[in-house]
Specification:
globular, alpha+beta, 5-stranded antiparallel β-sheet
């Protein structure tokens, strides 16, 4: 089970993050997402737990609890989707302008 955790303290380490979830079962991986330019935490991360029952128990018991001074939100991670917008090359004919308006 892939678990998404938001509102992490910016000083939270991968080790303490993993230890929190290890109380509920086996943790395959714990990853805090960092800014690619500064290397600083972005305040969220992902936990992978191979046992779905243990993962669900961790979600149920840790959601909206205090961890290292912040109230964390814990959910099942949704699959990554493509971002909308920002594709300026996909405007259709005439650059996206309708020349037949009048």
């Amino acid at each position: 089970m892939n678990i998404y955790v938001s509102n992490l303290n910016f000083s939270t380490t991968s080790e303490s993050f993993q230890e929190l979830f290890a109380e509920y079962g086996e943790v395959e991986s714990a990853k805090i997402i960092t800014d690619k330019f500064s290397g600083r935490s972005r305040g969220f991360g992902f936990i992978e737990m191979p046992n779905d029952a243990e993962g669900q128990k961790a979600i149920d018991e840790l959601n909206n609890t205090d961890f290292e001074g912040k109230t964390i939100t814990v959910n099942i991670a949704r699959p990554k989707t493509e971002r909308s917008g920002g594709d300026y090359n996909n405007r259709g004919e005439n650059g996206g302008y309708n020349r037949n308006r009048y």
